Amino acid sequence: MKLNQTALTRDISGEIMKFLAVIAGKIIILLSRLFKAGGGSALPGLVALRIDPRLIAKITSKLKHGTIVITGTNGKTTTAKYAAEILRESGYKVVHNRTGSNLVRGIASALIEQSTIFGRTRGDIGLFEVDEATMPNAIPQLKPKIVLVTNLFRDQLDRYGELDTTARMIGSSIAPLQGAMVLLNADDPLVAWLARDVNERSRVAFFGLDEARYISTSRASMDSKDCIICGSELQFDRRFYGHLGLYSCPNCDFKRPPLDFEAHNIYLHGVKNSSVTLRGSDKSLDVALGLSGTYNVYNSLAAYALVSTLDVDERNISMALTNSDAAFGRMERFVVNGKETYLLLIKNPIGLTQIAETLSTDSEARNFMLVLNDNFADGTDISWIWDADISALPRHSNFIYTTGIRAGDMALRFKYEGFETGKIVLVETIDDAFEQALSRTGDGETLYVLATYTGMLHIRNYLTRKGFVEGFWKEVA
Ligand SMILES: [Zn+2]
Predict the structure, then answer these.
(1) Could you give the count of Cα atoms lying within 13 Å of 260 in the half-sphere of its Cβ?
(2) What's the 428 CA to ligand 1 centre distance in angstroms?
(3) What is the Å distance from ligand 1's center to 388 Cα?
(4) Distance, CA 164 to ligand 1 centroid (Å)?
(5) How far is the CA of 226 from the centre of ligand 1 (A)?
(6) Within 13 Å and on the Cβ side, how many CA atoms surround 185?
(7) What string of pLDDT tens digits covers the 477 residues of the chain?
(8) Distance between Cα 255 and ligand 1 center (Å)
(9) Cα torsion at 77, 78, 79, 84 (round to 10°)?
(10) Single pTM value for the model
(11) How far is the CA of 208 from the centre of ligand 1 (A)?
């Protein structure tokens, strides 16, 4: 009797804590909206978790269809966006940390925003992108029924240390899961290796490309060259991008595992759009993608694999994949003065290499502008531009404008790559560079703007000020 009373007291105090945490979070959300403090996607969660550290578990345990977690270096945001759209089309009520705030505080903020003041969730399924380093902290609270790992590339090394360490961290966080489906990118050796950490009460499925047309010849960003088991150098029959490909170890039995979900018949049309056939165990689907690039083929395949274990109509998958535009700033299209402009985010060697390779599939792409800033949000060390392989960028370009705080470094990078110096134009002010580049872009042609994070925000602000973009919103990381 006394025991029951203790449990009851604990339950009640737990509910009160949750209530106070949600109220505090909601007040901060309200205030930041009132004062237009720009989204504020981290602070409400941060404060709420101080009040009730178990808040995430308390809210998500009430989600009828459980939670889905997406982690990995690249592709989290786009994959989550695809999956969210497919699920919504199929009638699910999705709770999603869609602003890309993928630390626990961002997840808590999303949950608070999408709950009643009593902390009762309005959704029936949770879809969370989770930062790799946050996995050990987030997984025990989210207890996902599906986990997907996109890939592991070197990114912000200072924060994560070596890639194997990141892989081990993800591995140990998924190891205790019971009855979960773990979806792994088979083409990434480190990610495929994580299968060993999944216990026998959970399931593993692999996704990857079955493709011979778009083979990367770039040696840039071969982040995982060595077998994680015996240390020998892996042999690649083909690579799709970076170290993603068809690999095997010459000294042990480690090799690319057989695929449960695959993408084939891939056609890329520059950075503008593409088409692909996605195949699961007993079905396949031809899709026209609204985005392009091998990395987006991976994102669409990942989303396809994610939703295939749920109750989803194939038509909803095609529709979402075709109509979905790029996640914030990843690849956006604007029409400025009647000229088409694409804004592409660059942040690491592999991303820039992939964009260069994708642009090379479009013979019409010839007008380029690169914005290189070194503010904190861009990464203050810009030496990564020397690790990127930009050789695939079309040599027949009309011009390459370089601008931003480190415009000179970018111009130098192109000169060293052997681009014609007469075509490289250095303009320090981003606005001036954009105006000049745009006016030199011919009618019916496209201007491609590749920019680091704050450079991208600058361009977007500029376009908003000039009235070219509506509904600009600020992302708070
Ligand atoms: Zn080996």
Answers:
(1) 17
(2) 49
(3) 27
(4) 15
(5) 8
(6) 33
(7) 556 777 888 888 889 999 999 999 999 988 888 876 655 578 899 999 999 999 999 999 999 999 999 999 888 988 999 999 999 999 999 999 866 577 888 899 999 999 998 889 999 999 999 999 899 999 999 999 999 999 998 765 544 458 888 999 999 999 999 999 999 999 999 999 999 999 999 999 999 999 888 777 776 657 777 898 999 999 999 989 888 999 999 999 999 999 999 999 999 888 778 899 999 988 999 999 988 888 899 999 999 999 998 989 899 999 999 987 765 556 778 888 888 899 998 988 888 988 898 898 888 899 999 999 999 888 889 999 998 999 988 888 999 999 999 999 999 999 999 999 999 999 999 999 999 999 999 998 999 999 998 999 899 889 888 877 644 433 332
(8) 8
(9) 90
(10) 0.81
(11) 20
Cα separation, 289 vs 91, whole angstroms? 22
Ligand 1 mean position, distance from CA 232 (Å): 6
Place of tokens 């060697």: 349
Residue 219 CA, ligand 1 centroid: distance in Å: 21
Residue 188, SS3 per DSSP: coil
The residue behind tokens 């489906």 is 181
Separation of CA 365 and ligand 1 centre (Å):
42
Measured in Å, residue 207 CA sits from the centre of ligand 1 at: 21
Ligand 1 centroid distance, CA of 329 (Å) = 39
Q: Name residue 454's amino acid.
A: T
Q: How close is the Cα of 341 to the center of ligand 1, in Å? A: 46
454, 378 contact by CB (below 8 A) = yes
What is the 206 CA–ligand 1 centroid distance (Å)?
A: 19
